[in-house]
Amino acid sequence: SVQYLQKFLLSNQKKGPFATIQSIKSLQVGDLIQLKQTQNGYNHTLFISQIINGDFYVCAHNDDSKNRPFSSYRYLEAKGLHIEGIYE
After folding, report:
1. What percent of the chain is helix, strand and coil (3-state, nearest 5)?
2. Is the distance from CB of 33 to CB of 49 less than 8 angstroms?
3. Are 77 and 60 in contact (CB under 8 A)?
4. Cα(19)–Cα(84) distance, rounded to whole angstroms?
5. Alpha-carbon distance 1 to 45, whole Å?
6. Would you state the torsion angle of the CA atoms of residues 56, 62, 66, 72, taken in this order, to the nearest 10 degrees?
7. How far is CA 59 from CA 54, 77, 88, in A?
8. Residue-level pLDDT at 39
């Protein structure tokens, strides 16, 4: 479902949230990080819950992570999605 969430957020022009791809370093609380952990493509989405001294802490469903350090994840590539706003 990672690719479907990304497609929705990047193309949504009606109701709900919309996003743009941003560098990981420029992300804010509430933004998303999508990980490519295997050669099969992006497979995991993390929500940024806190930023402390420049370090990201994330929440995710797999392994039920709450405020887990982003630095503890292993991945091949990471993509940032900045939530620009919400259409009402």
Report:
1. 20, 50, 30
2. no
3. no
4. 5
5. 9
6. -40
7. 17, 18, 26
8. 92
Q: Which amino acid is at 63?
A: D
Cα distance between residue 3 and residue 11, in whole Å? 12
Sign of CA dihedral 43, 49, 54, 56: negative
State how far the Cα of 65 lies from the Cα of 44, in Å rounded to an integer: 12
Splitting the chain (88 residues) into consecutive groups of 10 residues, what average pLDDT does each group show?
95 97 97 95 96 96 89 96 97
Residue 74: the pLDDT is 94
Query: pTM of the predicted model, to two decimals?
Result: 0.92
In the numeric block, the tokens 């392994």 are attached to 63
